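Summary of Year 1 activities. Much of the first year was spent building the evaluation harness for sequence design. The harness presents a backbone, in tokenized form, and records the residue chosen at every position. We chose the following record to illustrate the format because it has been used consistently in internal testing since the harness was completed.
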């Protein structure tokens, strides 16, 4: 025996001398699946001998170890590449396991029952455990006072009666997915545990390999701490409950894929942060959240791709504030009343690229409709950047594009494209028959659209482009503000083409004190005051009742350029309408161009703004309709041109004329022209202070369609009461005008010379 170990000692000396780019180790393998019970570089061993107790004595340079021959199975001399000698190797072989533990059992104690491995580490070192092989039943569990690294090096564990991996590490744990490897963890239906992979503290996943986790009882993964991922591929093949359930979420990179989940896909009990990487979730379960946080959720980047089909499910959900500062989002949700993005508090979006398809239906429950919505905030929504492409197909009847119960503010450099195609409908509310309909932008509180490039299209019955506020009894709330006081603002295009729903008038939708069984399509509808400071507006409507800009309170146009082409009223208010600045062109082919129902002086006021309003419908529809022309006021040096039918004198049902009216204390000259005249499309009509080719071009206007007018109001900058003015026409637009907007030209040189009519200013 002594000669044997003398020979071994000579071998060790030889191994030490010949080592290059690595080193040979001496390993002592234990009996009864204990694996390697001793591992050390050959160069660190001074000698091996049998001591007086009949034990194998291994003396190293700094310490020594003794082993009973009854616990030794064999000795090996493996080649270990440089720098890997401190790794614990655990290799699964079906129902057994090979263990290489270079640490003394007093520091790292490893036991195995078949292929179920338990590790207890009290070492002060952050040890790496390399797992490989396949086992069923198999398990890996560890308790450690430090931060170990679990190197997943092609390991596949299935534990039918419990967790496949259980990590209890006071200082958190690192899981390294070895490059190019495929790893898997699966629990079983006989398990009474809560996850296939359980971490009882923080867990960091990194590397360039793939880990697939299957939870057949409850969660696939549960982390009682923060789940952090920086690289690698994590696949949740299926889970009965949540795919990844964690106390805190931090995703900086890598790819997370949830292929099927019975409950939430990736969910955090506390705050969640997504800064990069990609998250893909596919689910058909009911009432689930693909990505959620019970507290605040912040998304700064990454790629998020979600497809959910279950009713009342959400792609992204936060119970508190939701902030999105970047990232790419492709969200498809088709379940009834489902949501693309939802927060129970404020939503703030500063950047990001959003493609959202919301195709679920509206459901009436307890006399109240619930909608399928792309972005829903229970309080306020703030958008200051990003690109949004939102589509609500016809299956989404009554759904909303972006909606909130509080205020909505849209600013910054954004591009928003929203289409709604579903029909509105009537339903039985607690107060009687009511209606609901789709809307592209909806705020129960106030709405400000300060900038951006916004295109809204609604084709369904009674669909709205923008709807603001609500009704409580006889009180309307919710102000609409567009643009900024310096005249800047959004480029806003709104198109509605849906027919009416129901058979009577009123304010449709929930929140009112009385019910309505009729609703019409509207481009922009505000319960409270609507103030337009700036920007460029293009509005098109094409059905009965489909108005362009409506306020139940008052409308102020202070600046910008705005074009309305509507079947019904272009601009309508239950209160007063002010043109204090900007340029507004209104063309209605089915109703009044501008209609105020204020019923008092100042119902329509021309201040320093420019307004060109005409209707081709004929009597009794007017260019400016305020029930009594004497209510009109001219308080500034703006321009007001209206043309259309007349309700006075020879009004409805036919005839022409009407007495016009008298305006009290006008700031400049004006004329109610009551003779019938047909303005022809393709001709340019110039108001001048001289006949023929002479005089000053005060304003030029042209019509998109022939307009037979029985009552026209004409006032322009510089008009003086008592002087004669001429309306001339030609076939060429003025050259070099200072303003050229949808048939309205201010300044420049006009070639019009054929006289249409003349008048003396009032």
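For this record, the design step produced the sequence shown next.
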């Amino acid at each position: 025996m002594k000669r044997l170990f003398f020979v071994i000692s000579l071998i060790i000396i030889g191994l030490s001398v010949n080592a290059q780019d690595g080193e040979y180790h001496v390993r002592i393998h234990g009996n009864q699946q204990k694996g390697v019970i001793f591992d050390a570089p050959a160069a660190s061993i001074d000698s091996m001998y049998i001591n007086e107790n009949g034990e194998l004595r291994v003396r190293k340079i700094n310490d020594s170890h003794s082993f009973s021959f009854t616990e030794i199975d064999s000795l090996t001399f493996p080649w270990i590449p440089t720098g890997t000698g401190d790794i614990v190797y655990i290799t699964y072989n079906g129902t057994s396991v090979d263990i290489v533990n270079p640490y003394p059992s007093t520091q790292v104690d490893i036991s195995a029952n078949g292929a179920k491995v338990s590790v207890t580490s009290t070492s002060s070192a952050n040890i790496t455990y390399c797992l490989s092989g396949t086992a069923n039943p198999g398990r890996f569990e560890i308790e450690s006072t430090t931060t170990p690294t679990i190197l997943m090096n092609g390991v596949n564990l299935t534990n039918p009666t419990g967790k496949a991996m259980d990590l209890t590490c006071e200082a958190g744990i690192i899981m390294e997915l070895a490059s190019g490897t495929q790893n898997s963890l699966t629990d079983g239906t006989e398990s009474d545990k809560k996850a296939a992979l359980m971490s009882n503290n923080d867990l960091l996943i990194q590397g360039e390999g793939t880990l697939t986790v299957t939870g057949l009882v409850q969660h696939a993964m549960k982390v009682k701490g923060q789940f952090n991922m920086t690289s690698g591929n994590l696949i949740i093949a299926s889970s009965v409950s949540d795919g990844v359930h964690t106390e805190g979420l931090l995703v900086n990179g890598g790819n997370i894929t949830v292929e099927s989940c019975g409950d939430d896909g990736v969910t955090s009990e506390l705050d969640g942060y997504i800064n990069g990487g990609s998250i893909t979730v596919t689910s058909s379960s009911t009432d689930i959240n693909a990505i959620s946080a019970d507290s605040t959720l912040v998304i700064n980047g990454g790629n998020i791709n979600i497809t959910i089909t279950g009713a009342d499910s959400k792609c992204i959900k936060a119970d508190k504030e939701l902030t999105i500062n970047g990232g790419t989002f492709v969200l498809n949700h088709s379940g009834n009343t489902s949501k693309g993005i939802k927060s129970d508090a404020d939503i703030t979006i500063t950047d990001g690229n959003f493609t959202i398809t919301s195709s679920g239906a509206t459901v009436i429950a307890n006399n109240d409709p619930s909608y399928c919505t792309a972005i829903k905030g229970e309080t306020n929504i703030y958008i200051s950047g990003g690109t949004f492409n939102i589509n609500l197909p016809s299956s989404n009847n009554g759904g909303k594009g972006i909606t909130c119960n509080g205020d909505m503010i849209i600013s910054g450099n954004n591009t928003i494209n929203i289409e709604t195609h579903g029909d509105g409908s009537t339903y039985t509310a607690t107060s009687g028959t009511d209606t609901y309909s789709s809307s592209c932008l909806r705020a129960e509180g106030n709405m400000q659209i300060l900038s951006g490039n916004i295109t809204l299209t609604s084709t369904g019955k009674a669909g709205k482009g923008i709807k603001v506020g609500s009704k409580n009894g006889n009180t309307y709330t919710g102000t609409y503000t567009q643009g900024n006081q310096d005249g800047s603002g959004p480029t806003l295009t709104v198109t509605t083409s849906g027919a009416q729903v129901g058979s009577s008038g009123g304010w449709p939708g929930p929140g009112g004190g009385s019910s309505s069984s009729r609703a019409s399509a509207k481009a922009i509808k505000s319960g409270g005051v609507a103030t337009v400071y700036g920007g460029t507006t293009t509005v098109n409507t094409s059905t009965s009742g489909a108005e362009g800009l409506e306020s139940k309170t008052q409308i102020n146009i202070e600046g910008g350029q705005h074009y309305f082409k509507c079947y019904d009223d272009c601009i309508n208010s239950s209160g007063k309408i002010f043109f204090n600045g900007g340029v507004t062109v209104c063309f209605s082919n089915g109703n009044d161009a501008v209609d105020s129902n204020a019923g008092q002086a100042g119902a329509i006021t021309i201040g320093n703004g420019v307004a060109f309003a005409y209707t081709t419908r004929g009597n009794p529809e007017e260019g400016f309709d305020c029930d009594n022309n004497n209510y009109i006021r001219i308080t500034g040096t703006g321009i007001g041109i209206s043309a259309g039918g007349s309700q006075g004198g020879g009004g409805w049902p036919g005839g022409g004329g009407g007495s016009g009216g008298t305006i009290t204390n006008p700031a400049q000259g004006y004329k109610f022209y009551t003779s019938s005249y047909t303005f022809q499309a393709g001709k340019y009509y110039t108001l001048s202070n001289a006949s023929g080719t002479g005089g000053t071009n005060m304003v030029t206007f042209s019509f998109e369609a022939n307009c037979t007018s029985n009552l026209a109001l004409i006032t322009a900058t510089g008009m003086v009461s008592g002087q004669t003015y001429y309306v001339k026409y030609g076939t060429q637009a003025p050259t070099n005008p200072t303003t050229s907007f949808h048939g309205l030209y201010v300044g420049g040189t006009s070639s019009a010379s054929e006289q249409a009519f003349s008048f003396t200013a009032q």
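Confidence is low (pLDDT under 50) at residues 505-515, 649-657. Quantitative recovery figures across the full test set are reported in Table 2.
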